[in-house]
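Checklist before submission:
- one chain only
- standard amino acids only
- sequence pasted in full

Submission:
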Amino acid sequence: MWARIMGCGPRHVRGGIVDLRPEDEVVLHLQARCTALEFLLGGHQNAYEALRKRGVERYRLLDMELNIARVRTEPQYVRALVDDLAEGRMTWADDDRLTTCRPRGDRSDEETSQ
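Returned file contents:
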């Protein structure tokens, strides 16, 4: 999922974890993702409505409905991530073994590695 949100290809994913970038870059990517999702949602809804007007039965469009529901809810989730980063409720931290996400103020890993 992170690869999709961050707009990364497979080369940026290592062991299922996306190589995390600096917070300001993460925020820019997340904001761009929100814009792209809003555009995508409009296209999906227009296509769905056009198919229904052409008489396509709803049961044939269930996958499309599910996709629209996912695209409709994802921007709210992504905006919450942006808000958490901007307000300092979440930060990106990096250690030698793995890039992880943890709340600000949690320095236990740094203290034990010194």
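Reviewer check: The first strand starts at residue 13 and ends at 14.
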